[in-house]
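haha ok so turns out i had the wrong file open the whole time. this is the CORRECT one, sorry everyone. sequence first:
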Amino acid sequence: MYTQSTRAAAPRSLLAMTEAETRAHGLSRLVMVTSNDDLPALYLYQRWGFMITEVKPGAILAHHGREEPGFAHIPVRDEIRLERRLSSCPASRCAILELGVAINLGDIGGPHSPPGPSFPPLPLAPLGG
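then structure:
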């Protein structure tokens, strides 16, 4: 049976595995990239200790050349980057693992969560540092 707790456990497990792999490679930061409409992802990442570090207004709109409705019919336009430090080090000397994770977190929101648009992932650019 696929329950609400099962849906919540999958992203949590993926994050735990990613964090373990990041630490195993001696990296000290995780960077997640999502879109402005993905409220479930923004909620979960911030609950897991990620902080918003960059907003790129219009980045997704410019990349795809069109606007489409996303989660809760919010127009998909902006790229939002969130970061979680795994150890203390100056930002300029931290190695990072930047993830472009495509998880349909709309399933976590329940039956009233529409799926997001079907955009291919954006190419990820390295953060300064």
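The chain has one domain: 4-105.
again sry for the mixup
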